[in-house]
Amino acid sequence: MKTNELREMYLSFFESKGCVRRPSDVLVPKWDPSVLFTPAGMNQFKDHFLGRCKLDFTRATTCQKCLRTGDIDNVGRTPYHHTFFEMLGNFSFGDYFKREAIHWAWEFLTTEKWLNLPKETLSVTVYKDDDEAYDIWNQEIGLPPDKIERKDEDENFWPASAPSEGPDGVCGPCSEIYYHTHFGEVEIWNLVFTQFERKGNPPNNLFPLPSKNIDTGMGLERCASALQGVVTNYHIDILRPIVEASAEVVGLKYDPMDENGRRLRRITDHVRACTFAIHENVYPGANKEEYVVKRLLRRAVLDGRRMGMTEPFLWKIVPAVIEQMKAPYPELCETQEVVQEVMRLEERNFLATVDNGLGRIERVFHQMKAENRSQITGDEAAEMYTTYGFPPELFETLGAELNFSFDWDGYREAMRRHGEESGAGKRVELFKTGPIEALKSTIHNSRFVGYDTTDLKNTVVAAIISNGKSVSHLRQGSESAEDKPVMLVLTETPFYGEKGGQIGDTGWIRSEGKVLSVKAGTMNVARLREEELKLLFTAVQNSDGTSEPFTFEVIDTQNDSGLIIHLGYLRSGMVELGEIVTASVDSKRRRAIERAHSATHLLHSVLQKHLGSHAQQRGSKVMEDMLRFDFSNPKAIPYETLLAVGKEVNQRILEAQEVRGKVMPLEEARKTGAMMLFGEKYPDDVRVVMMGESKELCGGTHVDNIAHIGAFKIVSEESISAGTRRITALTGMKVLEYMYARERILTQLALELKSPVEELPARLETLQKEVKQLKKELAAAQKAGGPAVEELMKQVEERDGYQLLVAEVPGGVEVLRESIDQLLRHVPKLAVLLASTSDDGKVALAAAISREILADGFDAVKWIRTVSPIVKGGGGGRPDFAQAGGKDVSRLQEALELAKTTVR
For residue 903, what pLDDT band results from cuts at 50, 70 and 90? Predict the structure, then answer.
């Protein structure tokens, strides 16, 4: 059976059981801070399992794209480990439970209509105390006792060992299904029965949940491997062609049994994983999920280097990946060129330093053996990452091949000192707890009415959170009201909670002291229907439900998975649950934010027109008449193109077209041609914002007519990471303020240079020529008065394996550079640091390292940064050349003496 057929058959089977087929969640769930990548099929249903959202369905089935790096060292070596994989799953949210899950799994695996596996090839495991599951397998399915194995909580409980080790929260036993082939047994399905809540330490710490759930997972590649009778997942019909393509690119024949075979399988996995990640706009970088992509690519580059590859090659494998994966994921075809270019650039960057890095690592290992040392130090690993771009995990892997251990604590401390902690490997609690999470279980979400109004009367206080605790009331002046911002949740609100790049609203919430006649905890006011609230409002008018009026200043508004939270301070009175309030947004500020947001949509549309469809949004920040827009582009935008982009945005503003927002089904939105961002998670119903040629999915607020943007001005365009550019722009009155400020500067320059504004360019060109000529004359004079290179060479000191020169010379920075260039040409294995002073009391420093000793522990940047603080300065550069400046001439000799002892 083909892998694509298996995927479709599984989903169709569970659809026949009443499960709703849901699309795969994105690979990078930005809405979930507990994970960097989606690790399992259940991840997109966490709020469903915990009752934190409205259930539109109680049964579901999916094929989820997943990425895990916990077992990365096993990838390519074992038959079944991957970083990227697909997980088939079926789920129940308080609907069917253990009996149905087991019976349906058996039906799918063994009946002729479906997989038709021989029953004798299957066995199962259950949790040691789960008699219910054992009896279903034994008495109802008919498996003999020798085919059912009871296992402890470390094997058959989710999370593993939860009863004894925690964490507290939802948990349950599981039952695993194994398929036995002539290659051995392989686990192909795990049925998790989330039926308990763990509270505290054992014994008697598992309490039955009122609503029991099902979460199952079947690894698509594993099951396909078993059905196709191949020895490894990498030989199934959708992966073997990628392995063969990888072998062809590196110029080798694929041999599954040799070390290069393992490397080719690892390359296959990593290129597939990175293709999907980059497709979702996750580019190689220094932090979080971007660091994972960087690590995977560099690991694959290193494998290729060991097979003789000295030029970028991974990008050539991308078409083979897309060819095999385009049936279930046709959207991959749209970003193939971008994925290849991003991958090629990252390969090129790493290959530029990999040889020096490998040479340095070999010397570290040689030194460790000589010292009879078995652990790689944190400082050694930090140097490899900061100087050569070698991820510590690669260093650890290379060391493990020689049975060396790795000091992770020492590495983190060294990186902390360096100020470049990568963020890789950081984990957050899988299921968050606290008052906000508890609110989601009862309130689910807030009704946002801010598209139509910025002032709302007769809304109700549904929750109050102060100092991390839910409270029923809060008085101004109390300690809890003064320490930290208080959080209020309303039944309805015109306040926009920060989301999608648009910052949250500010404003005021006020009451007149009227309270719904509802005691806290007896009724959930946030779930009341509009007609019910109207009846209660009427009752309040005729009742004694009064309270002390209050005024609450909203300093920020956040959106936590649909729950809109107003952060601020209680300025007067007392706030109570159930209190009827008026919510008023700062409308002037909101309009400024809307101008910038609508301009962002226009900018995105115009950029794609001028640069191409690859110029996709990678992030944005929409503030008061200011926007930052990050987008994919491999190089800087030419100045003339930027001018054209800005001009066209302003032309569209002058067209004064209406801005319309319409909620429609996702598929209908696709048909309209609305722009959708790869890697974004969209609900079944989406809001399409249309303004002229621009159509985008967006939940933010906008101007009613694009003419209200007023004006648009790009003020900067810059690189923020490889393949990602950032435009900063202004709208509305801030454009005029910016232009007036520039005009004042031009006027001042014209006065200083005694030239009309329109003639300033010509005047500056003349001045530049004069300065250039004066510099030449000055340099010649300084060179004539400075020491000859021969004289400097006499001061060179012989050291252990290198030569050292530290000296002060007359002249400026140009003399330092010229002298260093000549010294490097004449003196081998040289480490040189020269200093010069100026009449105004400044110090100039320059340091350089000969390339032949660069990998022996020398770094010009580190050297000069050690010395320059003595003269109250700082500096930077490259490992082979660095410069610095200083302000304290009096301590120059002290700095030079330090330079002699800190070179290495």
Answer: confident
pLDDT digits (tens, 9 = 90+) for 672-698: 888 877 666 677 788 999 999 999 999
SS3 content of the chain, % helix, strand, coil (to 5): 40, 25, 30
pLDDT at 669: 87
- Cβ neighbours of 429 (radius 10 Å): 11
Q: For the purposes of burial, counting CB atoms within 10 Å of the CB of 708, is it exposed (0-12), middle (13-18) or buried (19 or more)?
A: middle
- The tens digit of pLDDT for each residue in 436-456 reads 766 766 666 789 999 999 999
User: What tokens were used for 781?
Assistant: 């004079």
* Residue in 585, 583, 563, 587 with CA at minimum distance from that of residue 575: 583
Ranges 31-45, 367-381, 701-715, 802-816, most confident: 701-715
User: Could you tell me if 493 and 443 are in contact, meaning their C-beta atoms sit under 8 angstroms apart?
Assistant: no
Query: pLDDT digits over 98-148, tens only?
Result: 999 999 999 999 999 999 999 999 999 999 999 999 999 999 999 999 999
Q: Are 595 and 708 in contact (CB under 8 A)?
A: yes
Identify whether the C-beta of residue 706 lies closer than 8 Å to the C-beta of residue 644. no
Q: Which helix (H) or strand (E) holds 467?
A: none
State the Cα torsion 270-275-277-280 to the nearest 10°: 180
Q: Is 536 in contact with 545 (CB distance < 8 Å)?
A: no
Radius of gyration of the chain (CA): 33
**What does the pLDDT look like over 510-535, one tens digit per residue?**
998 787 754 433 345 444 444 444 44
Question: Phi and psi dihedrals of 638, rounded to 5?
Answer: -55, 150
Strand duo 375-376 + 405-406: pairing: parallel
Cβ contact 443:407 at 8 Å: no
* Cα 66 to the center of its chain, rounded Å: 15
Dist. CA 302–CA 313, nearest whole Å: 11
Distance separating alpha carbons of residues 197 and 433, to the nearest angstrom? 13
Q: Is 735 in a helix, a strand, or coil?
A: helix
Q: Whole-model pTM above 0.85?
A: no
Instruction: Give the C-alpha distances (Å, rounded to integers) separating 559 from 69, 340, 445, 556.
Output: 30, 36, 9, 10
Residue 549 CA to residue 580 CA, distance in Å, equals 10
Residues 239, 245 contacting (CB under 8 angstroms) = no
Parallel, antiparallel or unpaired: strands 724-731 and 712-721: antiparallel
Residues 6 or more apart from 730 whose CB is under 8 A from it? 625, 626, 627, 712, 713, 715, 738
- The number of C-alpha atoms within 13 Å of 774 and in the hemisphere containing its C-beta is 6
* Cα→Cα distances 863→268, 809, 855, 896, Å: 41, 19, 14, 11
Please give the Cα distance from 781 to 783 (Å, whole number). 5
Residue 473 in contact with residue 599, Cβ under 8 Å?
Answer: no
Structure tokens given for 482: 């003064």
User: For residue 746, what are its two tokens?
Assistant: 């031009």
Q: Measuring CA to CA, which residue among 678, 688, 487 is closest to residue 570?
A: 487
